[in-house]
Specification:
By secondary structure, the protein is mainly β. 0% of the residues lie in helices and 46% in strands.
Length: 85
């Protein structure tokens, strides 16, 4: 398990699914890019502890590969929006 230090979060990218629009298949490469991430772990004092899906600034954070999975460790201020339930 990756545990972030104070003010950081560990994220995992949500894979973009293929969608069907008006009877035609839209491939992921032709869809608009939206980088959505699932919060895997947040430091204890993070204000995003209860948030599950976030959007972040591009090219932020540090990638970590563990057990074949890629994670991204970012700082709180790199989150630009989140999805409310």
């Amino acid at each position: 398990m990756i545990i972030p230090t104070s003010g950081r979060l560990v994220l995992q990218k949500i894979k973009q699914e293929e969608t069907i629009q008006k009877g035609s298949l839209i491939l992921p490469s032709s869809q608009p890019k939206q980088d959505r991430y699932r919060v895997v772990c947040a430091a204890g004092d993070s204000k995003h502890c209860g948030v599950h899906i976030v959007y972040i600034d591009r090219y932020k954070g540090v990638e970590i590969i563990k057990d074949g999975e890629t994670y991204l460790v970012i700082e709180d201020q790199d989150i630009i929006a989140y999805e409310a339930e």
